Structure formats: C-alpha cells, structure tokens
Protein: DUF2064 domain-containing protein
Organism: Nonlabens mediterrranea
Amino acid sequence: MLNMDFKHSQTAILLFAQSARVDSVSKSLVNTSVMDVLNNHVLKTVYNSGLDYYHFTEKEQRGDTFGSRFKNSIKDVFELGYESVICIGNDTPLLSTDLIHKAAFSLDNGNSVIGKSLDGGLYLIGMNRGQFKAVAFEKLPWQSDQLGIYFKQYLEEFKGKITILKTLQDIDSTADLFQFLSGQDARHLIIALLLNTLSRKRNHYKQSTFYNRQVFLFQPANKGSPDLIAA
C-alpha cells in the first residue's frame, strides 16, 4: 500500500467523459444503460482514491475538437492551483483505485505517467504542470491508435522519468464490449453489472439510472456527499 496523504495532495483527477446519453451515441454502444454502468463505476473509483476530482462532461468542455476540449479542461484544472493532474475517461472498466494511487505517487516524485490501452490509445495520462505545453498537447493524434506512441514521445521531450502502468482494454464500441465480457477478466464485479444491464435490456425492462447528477466544476467532488456515487 502506498503511503500518501491524499487529503493534502497537489494532484487532482480530471474525469474527461461525456454524459451516458451522448457517449452511447458517439461510441455506438448497445444502449445508454451500459454507459450508466461505466460512469457509475469510474465515479466510484475516483471517489475512493481520496483525491480531488473534476468531471468535465459535454456541458463543461470548451472547444471545436477533441484536442482543444481536452487541452482547455486540463488548463482549467491547473488554474485551480494543482501541481499535477491525472486524466482518465469512463471507458476502461478495470481502471482501479490502486492504479490511480500509483499514478499519484509517481507524479509526487516528479515522474509523468501513462496507462496504455490495447488498441494503441491511452486510458490514463499523468502530468506535472511543467509538462503541459498547450499547443503541442492539442496537436497530438487524439482518438487514434497512434496516440500511445506519440504521447510517449511528447513526454520524452521533458527528459524526466515516465511511469508506465499495465495495459488495459477500453470499450469504444459494442464489439469491444462483448470482447471484454468474453475475456479472462469476466470474474470482476463490473462484468456482473454490465451483464445485468444487457440482460435487462434484452428482456425489455426499464433500466434505472445509476448516476444522474453532475459534479460541478470548481468544487472538488470528493468534498461532497458520498451518496452521489452510491452503487
């Protein structure tokens, strides 16, 4: 177990993820309820990390491209006074609090952090303030299978150490979802939640919303009530 005082950490988490309704369309997933499950899971994970976190949905994001929206969101978090930021999405079911703690520990020691996805993208980015160069960051090949390669090159320009977390599968489509459900990790709790959601849809039951409240910008979300993310 890593020994860090997260209550006084200068690292914040940026959850850069659209609402379930918008994400389910952009990812061509089977239904909105799947994204409800994934959103609820990642919110619970970041809450349990003990770090301040900020959820930027399509309502908080600003910009005409993915790169510009991502850049502006990171800039907003740094302007709140944090020295480092951990950026994650909502599409990696096996992202854990332990991995977030490893990222925070590495950042606290001056390292940058990347978590690679199986498809060549990234599920986690960790940077200190001095490693965020807005213009170069925005120009990276976001949403491509080359992102992992190019982002590592971006970080290497700063000559510091890079912590590389274990590779995980993300879910960008229905095909990814069913591949994930058929894998070795099917024993994980999130699998049961996803399968239950799909079963309810198949039987024409109405899926209740797991998460329907916004985490507001400029207020550390882990200062709020735990009932926001109750399972």
